[in-house]
Amino acid sequence: MALYRDTGVVLRVQKLGEADRIITILTRHHGKIRAVAKGVRRMRSRWGARLEPFNHVDVQCYTGRSLDVITQAQTVDAFGAGLVGDYPRYTAACAVLETADRLVSEEGEPALRVYLLLVGAIRALAGRERDASLVLDAFLLRGMTHAGWAVAIDACARCAEPGPHGAFNISAGGAVCPRCRPPGSVTPSPDTFTLLDALLHGEWDVADAAGATTRRDTSGLVAAHLQWHLERQLRSLPLVERRATPPRAESGTRTPSRAPVPVDGPG
Residue 24 pLDDT > 90, yes or no? Predict the structure, then answer.
């Protein structure tokens, strides 16, 4: 029996038997792990609430035959408290967790960069420092870059001719020049390309100044690009509420979300 200790973010939980749960955690040093937390569903469990999605925890585990077993858990950051009362932030955080789970497909595979991106995104959402939609799109863009699916923004995705270019094609990998432009490409506004670049490089002054239409178009391109490479739709993305309100604004009305810009997809 080998003991190990690590910090990580709880991605999801599954029921096991009458009182146990299987906890999926993206950790700093061990990548994604799936471990059994015994007895956490009992009323008298002292640490079951610590192993809930969004929580940043310090866990001690020992390796088992098929699944590891969690023996201790301490809360590092209880991010869930800042998310559950705000629907747009909660749904954006759910999309962040699901994306991190998909990007790190192999258990035990080192994934330090995705882990750091995940902690930063959940902390920003829970702290209400930025608009939830912008935080989500920035996480998706940077996560895809680390996965090898970087979006071409300022050069042609096919021939690498420097831009700016006016067309965007999902299957090609991003911006395309007039010579390489495939059928079915879309023509986003220059502001959309500017916002894509700002989110990728953390230029938040530029991102915060973007208008509602630009944000919606950008979100549509980012979501389509991610799901093209994952070859499946994320269940949480259709539930994300996109609204053009300041991150700390208190408003009794919400701007209804609009459909993303049409883009070509697989098949």
Answer: yes
Nearest one of 50, 73, 49, 48 to 60, comparing CA atoms:
73
What length is written for the chain?
267
d(CA 132, CA 75): 24
What is the token pair recorded at 12? Answer: 């999801």
Residue 172 CA to residue 152 CA, distance in Å, equals 9
> How would you classify the pairing of strands 3-16 and 31-37?
unpaired
d(Cα 147, Cα 195) in Å, to the nearest integer? Answer: 21
Q: Which two tokens stand for residue 210?
A: 């973007």
Q: What is the CATH number of domain 3-77?
A: 2.40.50.140
**Confidence band of 248 (pLDDT split at 50, 70, 90):** low
Domains 3-77 and 83-239 share a fold: no
Secondary structure letter of residue 155 according to DSSP: B
Tokens found for residue 179: 């010579």
Residue showing tokens 């999902």:
170
Flag whether pLDDT at 241 surpasses 80: no
| The pLDDT value given to residue 244 | 52
Fold of 83-239: de novo design (two linked rop proteins) (1.20.1440)
- E-assigned strands of 128-266? 167-169, 174-176
The stretch 120-130 carries a mean pLDDT of: 91
Residue ranges per domain, the chain? 3-77, 83-239
pLDDT at 226 over 60: yes
Note the pTM of the prediction, 2 decimals. 0.84
